Structure formats: C-alpha cells, structure tokens
Automatic annotation (TrEMBL):
Pfam families: FRG. It comes from the Bacteria. InterPro entries: FRG-dom. Residues 27-130 form the FRG domain. This is FRG domain-containing protein.
Amino acid sequence: MEKEINSLVDYMLFIKALKQKYQVESMTRSFLYRGQATDTPLIPKILRLVPRNGDLLAIEQALLGEFKRANPLLIDPFQVKNDWDYLTLGQHYGLPTRFLDWTDNALAALWFATSSALAEERSGLYAVVWVFIAETGDFLPNTGDQHPFDVSESKLFRPRIIKQRINNQSGVFSVYSTEALKRKQRFEEMADYRAKMIKIKVPEAAVETMVDDLHSLGIDAFSIFPELEGLCAYLQWKFFNN
C-alpha cells in the first residue's frame, strides 16, 4: 500500500487512522517507522556497498573484529557487553552492518526523511516514510540466546540503550538473517512482512514546509541527535537558508 501526503496534518491524520484501524483487533502491534530521503530499497548498509574483495560474510566477520580491536578506548565508555552492543554502536556511527534502523516515533521518521531530502536537493523525487505494523512474533524474544550473525530469520529487536541517541530516536533495529543477506533480499519484499508495510510518499514541493513545521514542534537535529553535531545542524537551519 502507498499513500501520498502533502502536509504534516495529512501525515498525522493518516497515522491516526491506521492506529484506529488496528486497535479494534485484539492482537498486540507495534507501529514502527523508517524515514528515507528517497524511495530506495529497504536493505542494510552492508548490502549497499561493493566489497573490495572476498566473501561478504567473511568481510562482515573481519569488519566486526577490526571494529572491536582498532581502538578499545573509544568503545569502553559505552559499556558494551556483547556483539549485539558492538554492532548497535557501530550502526549508529556508520559501520556497515546487517541492521536496519527503525523508530517508534512517527515524527522522528518524518524529520529524517524530509530534512535529508532537503539537504540532498534531489529534484522531482519523493521522500519516504515506511510504516511497519509489527506483531509480537516479529521480534526476537531474547538476543542473548544467539549471535547476530546466527539468526535463522530476519527479525526485529530493541537494542540496549548504550547511547543517548538511541533513546532520543526511540531506536529499533531489524536484523537480517544470513540467508537474506546472501539473497540480497529487500526487507519490504520478505514474505512475512510485505503485507504489514505501508509506504508514505512526500513530494518534493511539500518537503521544506514539513521541515519547518516539525521544527516548530521541537523535532529537529538537536532533539534527534543530542550531541554537538546535532546542535550545529540545528543552528545552521536556524540562521541560514537551505
């Protein structure tokens, strides 16, 4: 299903209608959102890159090992406990992983989509927010029972809050199974999930107004990224034209 919206009001009314539709049913559901600057496939970063050489799974193992080895002093303050934590931290700093970011916060996802589209100035393209209406069985019951590289099915999980940014962004991840990685499968095309996903499209003409409206509600770079980079991005928006 696809839905085009042209204002923040349209967006919130559509989300509200979706929630009302599913609240009448007894099954517990989580509404998850992912904002993107353009309408590109839902695949993790490790599948968007071209390996220099070798097998992707071997590279993934080497990448994690090197991330853990290279400078432990940078990682120690986050009190990581296992490889789920290492990959969560790496994901937030741009490490190519088999994780894909989602959020419980519909406004945060819209901000990601529209602010990124505004920064990239890609004429004529849509910004996109994916809505994933997830059921309890779509989440891993306990990440401690297995290694992230060993999950047999692509699932969702909620990471430990080892970094404030995860909390501010209401972060949730999907983790790809090894089989899905090998097949380079799009998340939106997975048989278990495609009927639970809705694509909201924001035309280029509506993007700037939506960003301004979100800022007026306190949804901005500094609230999403509560660090110096977020503050600087917010101040740039405040004092300069895009």
